[in-house]
Structures are given as C-alpha cells and as structure tokens.
Amino acid sequence: MRRFPPEGRQRAVIENVKPEIDAGRFAAKRTVGDTVAVEADMFADGHDLLSAVLKFRRKKDPKWTEVPMAPLGNDRWRGEFAVEKIGGYLYTIEAWVDRFETWRQGLAKKIAAGHEVSLDLQAGASLVDDAAQRAVRDDRAKLQRHAAALRAGAEKKVAAKIEGDDELLRLMQKYPDRRFATRYDKELAVVVDREKARFSTWYELFPRSFGKPGAHGSFADLERVLPYVASMGFDVLYLPPIHPIGRRHRKGKNNALSAAPSDPGSPWAIGSEEGGHKSVHPELGTVEDFKRLVAKAKDNGLEISIDIAFQCAPDHPYVKEHPEWFRKRPDGTVQFAENPPKKYEDIVPLDFETEAWRELWAELRDVVFFWIDQGVRLFRMDNPHTKPFRFWDWLVAEVKARHPDVIFLSEAFTRPKIMYRLAKAGLTQSYTYFTWRRTKAEIVEYFEELTETEVREFFRPSLWPNTPDILMDYLQEGGRPAFVARYILAATLGSNCGIYGPAFELGENRPREPGSEEYLNAEKYEIKRWDLEKADSLKDLIAAVNRIRKENPALQSDWSLKFHPIDNDRLICYSKRAGDGSNGERANTILTVVNLNPRNTESGWVNLSLAALGLDRDGPYEVHDLLSDARYVWRGAKNYVELNPNKLPAHIFRIEERTQPH
Amino acid sequence: MRRFPPEGRQRAVIENVKPEIDAGRFAAKRTVGDTVAVEADMFADGHDLLSAVLKFRRKKDPKWTEVPMAPLGNDRWRGEFAVEKIGGYLYTIEAWVDRFETWRQGLAKKIAAGHEVSLDLQAGASLVDDAAQRAVRDDRAKLQRHAAALRAGAEKKVAAKIEGDDELLRLMQKYPDRRFATRYDKELAVVVDREKARFSTWYELFPRSFGKPGAHGSFADLERVLPYVASMGFDVLYLPPIHPIGRRHRKGKNNALSAAPSDPGSPWAIGSEEGGHKSVHPELGTVEDFKRLVAKAKDNGLEISIDIAFQCAPDHPYVKEHPEWFRKRPDGTVQFAENPPKKYEDIVPLDFETEAWRELWAELRDVVFFWIDQGVRLFRMDNPHTKPFRFWDWLVAEVKARHPDVIFLSEAFTRPKIMYRLAKAGLTQSYTYFTWRRTKAEIVEYFEELTETEVREFFRPSLWPNTPDILMDYLQEGGRPAFVARYILAATLGSNCGIYGPAFELGENRPREPGSEEYLNAEKYEIKRWDLEKADSLKDLIAAVNRIRKENPALQSDWSLKFHPIDNDRLICYSKRAGDGSNGERANTILTVVNLNPRNTESGWVNLSLAALGLDRDGPYEVHDLLSDARYVWRGAKNYVELNPNKLPAHIFRIEERTQPH
Lengths: 662, 662
What we know:
Oligomer: homodimer
Radius of gyration of chain A: 30 Å
C-alpha cells in the first residue's frame, strides 16, 4: 500500500516557471538595478480562484520578500522583483486557493443573477472571521466588524461592499489562508553583476608594441597610451597574457616553427625560468608597475582586464614543480598541445585528468585570486572550452563567492552548445559568432537567437569585429567602409563589444595569405609599431559611436533588440529601446540602419514595427542621425533610406517621439 | 573555502534530454512494442571524442541494459530501446571521453598528413594494454596481442589496422575506460500501457434505453445489444454511471429542477438508499449481472468501460456515513455543487479539503479496486479537473502499481494546461477539443500541437464527435454529411476515438434550443427508444471506417500525422504512416481527404509532401480509396480531388507504393 503525500490539500499547481535554466541547475544573469520578471503556469482544480506570490531573497539573507503575482490569461502568471545589489539572489513561488476571492466573485455573480444570498453572506462572514483570527490588533477588530456587517447586511449594501470595500479586500489579502499553499519545489538562482557586465566597450592591445623606438614596450610606456584609448570612449583596456614567455619551442614571426633570437614569442606561451602565471614578463615591468598601470588606467576611466590562459610553455615552472599536472608521451617527454594533424609545440596543456586534479584546480584558482589582489576585476578567460566544464562551474563559484564584482569574458569560439554551457557555468560575458556573421540573414537569425530565446538569460554576448587571431574576409575585402560598418554593427547590436587595436582603427587588413583569416605579420608573434595619428584612422568615428553608446541607454542592453524589414538585402535595420515612458521615465529609442555593401550606395524602404518603437501609427516623428547630426521627419512605417558607404555606411537615429521644429 | 566536487574528471556533459517531462517529474507514455527514442546534447571539453550509452530497465528489475547512442550532428545524440512489457521503465544516460577513439582518429589524421607516429603507436598500445586489464580470459589475451602488434607495427600496417581491424575496435568498445563517465543526474520514467491505450474505438450508450417496450433496460437486455455494437467495429462499450441514482433534488426531463415520479434522473447523480459507488442501480441488475455482461461483451470482442464520477447525490450513503467528507452551508445543510451563478442541486461534491482527506482518498481508491475486482480495466473518469491533481497523481500510481493494464480516460473538457496536467498525472487517454474544432485552420493547429510537440509524450487524445452533453453546432446544421465527415475525421485523425450512440449513428441533431449544444430531450434525464434499424443509419459507414482502422496500422497511432496543403479551405488532407519499409516490414500509408462543407461539392489540388508518404518525386503511384474501393493512379505532389458530401464527403486512400495493373 502506497503512502499518502504529506499534505493532500495543496491544490494549486505551479509549473513551467521562467526563468529556469536546465531545470534550475544554473542561475539566470542580471545586473544591478535590473528587474527579474518571473512567469509560471498556475491553476487549481475546479472553479476556485488562486492567489500567488513571488518570493525572493538575497542568497546571504535568509528572509524572503514577497510580491504578488498577477494572471496574464491562459493560466499564465507573472510577478517581478528588482535586484539592487550584486551577488546571488534566490526566488520561488507560492500559490494557494483563495477562498475569499472565490466567494467574493461568486457572490457578485449570484447577486447579479438575482439569487437569494443570505447563506452566502454568512459563509463569507465566516471567512472574514477566520482571517480575523490570523490578524493582529486593530486589523483583527476591523475584520470582526466587517464580518458582523456581512452577517447583517442587506443584499444591495453587500453588493456595493464586496465590489468596492478597499479596506475589507486589503485586509483579506493581508491575512490570507495559506495553510494549504503550494510551494514551488525549487529555489531558482539569479547572479547579479555590476553594470559593466551588461555594458562595456573593450579595447585590446599588445603593450610590447608601445615602447620607445626599437624597444620592447613596458607598462610604464603603456601609461602614456591610456589617454589615446580613453579618448575613443573605451572603458576596458584588455591585455594579452602579461607573464614571462617560454623560450623552448618559441614561435617566430608568422607562427614560424623556430624563433629568431630577437623574436618575442607568443604571450600565450606562458612561463619560463622567469616565472609563470603569477609573474610579470620582465620586459613589461614588475607587479608593482602593473598595479600602477591599473591605477592610472582608472584615472583615465579605464578598467584593466588581463588574459588568463590556463596553459604552459614547456619551460613553465609548473612543468618541473608539478610534473604530475602534465601528460607524458611514451618517451617520457611532456605531451604538447595538438589537434591532429595540427601541433602546438610551444604549448603544453594541463592534464585535467591528473590524479592531483584538486591541487591543480586550487592552484589555478589562486592564480585568479593573485591578480584580484593586484586590483584586477575583469578577466578574459582564454580557450575555456579546452578545460572541463565542472572546473568552470567550481572556479566561477569560488571566485564570485568572495568577489561578486569579478567579470569573466569567455573566449570560446567553438560549437554553440559548448559556448552556451560555459555561459551557464557562470562566465559573465561571451565572445560570439558575430565575428563571422556578415549577411543580413545570418545576423538576424543569430541575434534573434541571442536576444529573444532563453539563451539571453545566461549568455551575454560580446561582439568583436576582429581579434589578434581573426581578420574576417569582409574586412580584408571591404576597406575602410567595411571597418566602419562592422564597428557600428558591433556597437549597436551589442551592448558589450570590443576591438583589437590599433590594428582595427588603423584599418589593418592584410591576411597572411589569401583565404587565411590570420593577420600578415601577426602581432601575436612580433612587436609592431602603430602610427596612431594616421590620417585615415577610424579613431574619431569610433569615439563618436562610443559617445552615442554612453549617451543612449537603449544601446546599453540587448533584450530590446528588434529587427525591422527593409526591402534590400544589403541594408539591415534594427532598433533598441530603453524605458517605456512610464513612471515619468523618458523612453530612449535608437534605430540603426547599416549598409552591408562596402562598395556601393544602397537604398530601400524600411517597414518599421511602430509598436516596438513606441510610435503611433499615423503621426509624424523626427529621426535624428546622431552620427551626421541630420534630422528627418518621418511618418508611419514606410520610410526611405539611402546610404553611401564611402561617406557613412550607417544611420544611428534617435527617435524623437515629439516632432520639434528647429 | 568551497569543497571540491566528488570527482572533477567527469568531463562529459549531458543536457537537454528528451523525453523529459517537467524536469523528469512525470513519466512519458508508450504502449507495448513501442520504441523509446532518447536524445540528448552531449559534448566534452577540448577535441576529445565521446562515447555514450542509453541505460534502461524495468522499474521492478534493478539491472540496467545498455545500448550505444550515436551522434546526430551539432552535439545531439540519440539512442533507443523497445518496451516489451507493460508497467514502468526507467532510463538514463552515461557518457565518457573515449580516449581510444580519440587516439585512433587522431592517428589516422597524422598518418594521412605524413607525420612520424612511432610514439603515437606506443601511446595507443598502452590504451590497449589498459583495456586488456579490464578484459576477461580470451579477450585479455587478444588485446595483449593487439597491443604488441601496435608497438611493433610499421606505419602502413597500422594505418590499415586502425581503419579496419574489427576485432580491435569491438574489443576496445567492449572494455571502455569508464572511470570518469558522467551519469545523467536523473532517472526518467516511461509508463508502458497495453495496446488499447493507443488504439481503441469507443461506443457509449445508456443501458436503460435498451429495455423491453415501456421498461427500464437492464444489463440482461444489454447483452442482446452487444452484437449490434460489435458489428460496427467498436472494441470498447462505455456505460455512464451504473450506480443507484439519487432521489432528492433529482432532475427531470431536459434538466428540469424537479422530476416527475417516473423520471429516472441523471446517472451522474450517484447514490441513494439503495447504495453508492460500489452498488449497481437495481433496475440495471446486480453486480453478478454486471459481471456476466463483462464476460458476454468479451465474447463479442468488446471491453466494458464504466464511468467513475467522484461525486454524490444528496442521498448517497456517504453523506450520512461520512458527513466530514462534505462541506456544510451555514444552515447546516450539505453544500451542493455550483459554479456561480449555476447551481447543481442534485449533486453534492466531495470536500477534498476535509481533515479526513486520507480516508476519503482511500475510499475512492477502493471504489476503483472494487470494479477492477468485477473485471473492469477501462475507466472513464468523470470531471477529473474538479478534484485535486495530487489526488490523481496518487490514485493513478496506486492503481497502476497493482494493475498496470488499467486504462483511464480523462473526461476533462477544460482549459488546456489543466487537461495536460491531468494527463501528466498518468490518466491514460484524454478527451480533446476535437469536439469543437470545425475549420481546417482549427484542426491543423490543434493536431499539430497534439502530435508534433512534447505534448504527445504524455497526452493521448481521444476524439469524440459527440457526447451526451455536447451536440456541436456543425452536427446540428450539417445533416448526415456532417455526421459522416465528423466520424471519418475522428477515426482517421485519432487512433483513439468514440461516439455517443445510438444518437450519433441515427443522426440525432436537435438541440434543446437554438444556440444550445445540449440535446433536446437529452438521454441523461430520460429513457429513450432508438430505432437501430433506421434506414439512414450510419452504422454501415461506421463499420466500414472501423474496419479500415483495424486493417491499417497507420491509423492505429498518432505521431505520424502530417497535414498536406490543399488549395481549398473547405478540404483538409492529411496522412498517417506505419512502418518505414525497413527490416522487410511493409509500410502502411493512409491519406485522408475530407470535405468540411456538408452542403456542397468541393474540389481542389493537393500538394503532397512526398517524403512523408515514402514516395519518389516522379514515379506514379496508386491511391486506393478504401471507402469506395476506387483506385486512381497519381503522379508527383499535385493531384486533383473532388468530394460530393451527399455521396461521400471523404476519401480514405491507402497509398500503394508500387502501381499494380488491375
């Protein structure tokens, strides 16, 4: 004979809760000040009505706060709460059959149908009496008076009472009968990051290329470059690995198998006799120099991000000190990295299947803590998809438990499910396929997946038109208009974006060989000299775009992204919007149109979804091109655009909801 | 400091497993002989390859069986198992990094690229040696010989060996290194029913209407009707409640508030001084008579289903014996059923919020067990949506644990999420909105939801063109062609279907008043006389359709349902298919076209999805109308159909994949 459930009278059902990632195994992501809107299917048997509350709390605070949920139709309910602090939050739902509300609405129908309701009034009075028992002091007395009034009430007076008596309703809602409430069987998590997790503009450079003529650049040299980076409106300065570079099997220029004595090697070949992941490459300076750089950067409005690449050069100290962390070949040598038939002899991977995995994990965590201690809170995690997912689950939790302000950028350019799993592990931002998406159809499909599906709950896109490893064909072929278009796309499609410079703003577009997406004479393997004052530099255009990003909240988050039809496949049109105009808050709406053809002028008719833009169907409105400062009066959905890539391949319009003469 | 996970080297990830209903809280449904195809996203970090097995077992057998899973692309994997016995099954997944396979494929690439691989051969030999340690007897020796051969092998021989050595591959797959295998964190359930859960044809009648002239019909009278029902090809005979009918507040004809002394009352007003849910209405006979009816029905190929309605007439014995199971009004009387402003004075509902809910649940379970003891295995559960879902979760589990052959039909005509939740509780079949879906768009949308989404895993539709409570407007207006069309739709769209007869086959279509979907002089409230031999009875048409159902496996399940475009909204076209022609199994494909306009001939061009029909693009094929016996040679996707509703409003074609002359 089967056992009974502990309580058979919990009649409310709660299911299909959103957000809920992988049955609650992973947390949703938000930033400070965001709202968490929670929806669920809820219903009970029979005709009785439900009430429900959304319960939430900070993880470290055991006390729940409750907010009412409201029905949306078709048994879907919704409630929301704001997350005001960084760190973890939990939420769950409680729902119950609301006998008073069921009684109240039934009584109204009976009165409307002319039924005799004296017994119903007494039944209602009993419910109010019960609530009085749950109430305190004044409220109790008030409820008892209401119960008496119901018992004595003539039908008409009661009808008015149950429709309009705010006090009775309010008190009954304050003291509900929740004995048989159903509690959702999971507590779901949200990780709340600081604002930069949602809105950040990254600039990557190799410090060694900014030295005095003929010399290896240092952190001290880099201090002089900070104003240049800041002037373009970036707020993150990201440095490739800053550690000593291995000498054994060091790569030469253009990834040559052997290096000349003067070749500096790839910064990702980490570790030499001079130290490993907790050391600074001597030619860059010292840990103290780095700390000064961090402080100076801050003075320039820049946060320093460093690259954490959990891999070693063959002469990394770990190889001697912890041979058990590396796999051996049958001849006793350490196994280098390979992806057959490709070999990476300058890198030896850590063996995450080592018996000593706990010690290895702890050391890698300590690397992160070490740099946190030097003032870093932004980490670009290199190739996370080549380390076990469980390791990331653990590492991110470890770090964020102590430092919830840390942001990790996941550098995984790999298969989609793997990229998403790394984001679920808690890595804060993620590189995306934007780097290769060039046609309108490709861009629309991908960004609708990123911003309209459940993916947006855990995967924060970071859009990069280039990286030191990736010079996409479109940039190789399209010249300056292609660079402008790609930056505008990155900066308006994604609230998080970045470039690898100065290669980008200087329009560097020579591939190692035709068909390659590697740079010719890639900076990964040599020291470059960049002419930052080159006449055709994109720095002013980038500065203008970044200023538009800073001034327009619409561009500081991604969920509102909406594509609008346009009758030319070489033109793409989309909007973002912040604020809905309620609470006196001013809505901010940005409509971007980009010509994807870097060679020719393209024109077409946009067919705007006016509702998505907060516009009336018929009225005129002004679109203000924040790039050119031109203003146009548009009307309705269909409007004409024409873009000459050699002048400016894009409009970034702010929609002014009231047309103003000028 | 955070604890480490128990094992950090489980590198495989398993997610997005299907079927998995509500995070594994509910079981999927299958019938004996079905296949359970399980899919999951699986991947590991890095470039290493995975192997994975699907594990399954009968719930009562602790031993797992394993079948390999295979990749489908984009990190999706699939495996399947057959369910051969009724009762519960469990399944889960295990996946691991396959070092041998990773080595083997890497080696092949290196050899192809002309690399020197002597160290790789030794590394492979070590993997084979390790496997030998896991192997038994002969296998161990064989593996050791293979390891030696690898160590000694010249490259070319090895290349041939690793490509083509079936024995080495087979042995390495037999003894994999699963130390760090990831086990999916849930065991998911399947409930396997007997075949009738998937394929059944129901006939509902009121036994009391089949008595001798002027008399109340009895079970003995009903025995004489069995051949009639069987002759139409039905296999379930379902009887409304067979218990004593209450006298207090009994309803009269046409649901009148008071009954004449001769009025028999509604069978759903259960219970009187003559007994309750475990008794038989005296005018129908005795429990012994019922058992004889069950046996005689079986002789006619019919299974008896009874109605279980967990509600009471005011004079049900429970009301006196268990007053605590009912809610009281303030005047001390028992609360009757109501849905304000509607009142149902002849019914008192059970109070599932009673303190004595455990005793109530146990008694209701015993009602089911009582009728199981009398030979019933099919129950039509009345209004399950007015009893708590937790009760159904428990009741179904209770009953099926002892009697896995029991089938419950859920009579819930209510909101969609509630209907689905009842199906998740385990109720075997469910009434559907088919009863009201009349246009092509409505039918296509609804049946795509039922057969193409996750709903199909737990919700088995039962299609009823009419019930004693529901005479849809289309039947009221459309005359005989409407009845024919609705039966053919029910019988070909749904492998489970039923009618309330003889009202249906005799074309009874008079509503109580215009705009009502109640029958005039509804049989619920009075004894009817039916002329079963009426000239325009649909019985022969129904018999023909039911014969087609029995002879064509395509119509005995629902998942293959596919709608085909046709350029006339009054015509609907769809196919079902069983068998895929593999394993020598002969595919069976039925293509149905129905004219939804009961008044006029309609014609149009179908545009068939040939792939869904197993047809080549260009070849001719024969369509054989199993209703009219006409045969047509069609070619390609576009073909012409014309249907005169006054002759036959439908084609039920069998597609003969090879055209045969005749």
